[in-house]
């Protein structure tokens, strides 16, 4: 939905600074409640996983809601921070501070969600222990490509487009635009680079053959060390884990 809205907005703006589209602010107003709800939904999924996923995990899981909340925030800090920033910073900046300018750039930002379907499918395949399948490998390659194009190259592209608009060289754009634009782009790009590095590590393991040992196996009792150090707890809700069995999923923009 975000990608469709972004395409409609971007394709309708001939002047990338001055042209406006009604869908820009409307979609932002629609998306803000989602980010608020998603924080709550991710925590509730985490909480109920601790209750139902097996005796070994239950014995290592926090037993009280407050402890579970602390554990959840510790494990999902980056994703929760991302959602909070979207609501408290990006929302007022996009709706009020821009004063109706730059709808084209906002539309391009929405199109970053093109990478989300492959990220989500990768997480689902991991949860169902399908890492050994061809579908998982094909989806992993697609996720790597789409995430790189839609979320990593996104920001250089925005600088390139503005450079063409203002008739200045690409390398001079950061020195021409206001400092807070550079700061905002850097803060938004930083988590994308981090998540992309985790995806690359997972893809390297996947395509160098280490995933061949990940075929489903009969359940066995977890070692006591695993039960006490928390490694048996559910995977992070965002799916970006450095463990060998978890290399995909995303954050939402």
UniProtKB/TrEMBL annotation:
PROSITE patterns: TLC (PS50922). The chain crosses the membrane at residues 27-48, 77-98, 104-126, 138-162, 182-207. One of its GO terms (molecular function) is sphingosine N-acyltransferase activity. Keywords: Membrane, Transmembrane, Transmembrane helix. Residues 1-208 form the TLC domain. One of its GO terms (biological process) is ceramide biosynthetic process. Residues 210-253 are annotated as: Disordered. GO terms for cellular component: endoplasmic reticulum; membrane. Residues 244-253 have a biased composition (Basic and acidic residues). This is TLC domain containing 3Bb. It comes from Seriola lalandi dorsalis.
């Amino acid at each position: 939905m975000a990608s469709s809205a972004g395409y409609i907005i971007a394709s309708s703006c001939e002047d990338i600074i001055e042209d406006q589209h009604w869908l820009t602010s409307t979609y932002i107003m629609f998306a803000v409640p989602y980010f608020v709800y998603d924080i709550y939904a991710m925590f509730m999924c985490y909480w109920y996983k601790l209750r139902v996923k097996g005796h070994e995990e239950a014995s290592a899981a926090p037993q009280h809601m407050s402890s579970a909340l602390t554990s959840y925030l510790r494990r999902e800090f980056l994703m929760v921070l991302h959602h909070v920033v979207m609501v408290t910073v990006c929302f007022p900046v996009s709706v009020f501070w821009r004063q109706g300018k730059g709808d084209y750039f906002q539309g391009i930002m929405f199109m970053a969600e093109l990478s989300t379907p492959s990220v989500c499918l990768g997480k689902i395949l991991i949860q169902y222990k399908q890492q050994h399948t061809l579908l998982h490998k094909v989806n992993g390659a697609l996720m790597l490509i789409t995430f790189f194009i839609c979320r990593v190259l996104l920001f250089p592209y925005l600088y390139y487009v503005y450079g063409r608009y203002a008739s200045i060289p690409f390398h001079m754009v950061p020195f021409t635009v206001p400092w807070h634009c550079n700061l905002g782009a850097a803060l938004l790009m930083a988590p994308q680079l981090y998540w992309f590095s985790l995806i690359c590590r997972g893809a390297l393991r996947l395509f160098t053959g280490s995933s061949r040992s990940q075929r489903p196996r009969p359940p066995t009792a977890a070692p006591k060390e695993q039960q006490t150090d928390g490694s048996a707890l559910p995977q992070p809700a965002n799916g970006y884990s450095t463990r060998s069995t978890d290399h995909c999923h995303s954050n939402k923009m």
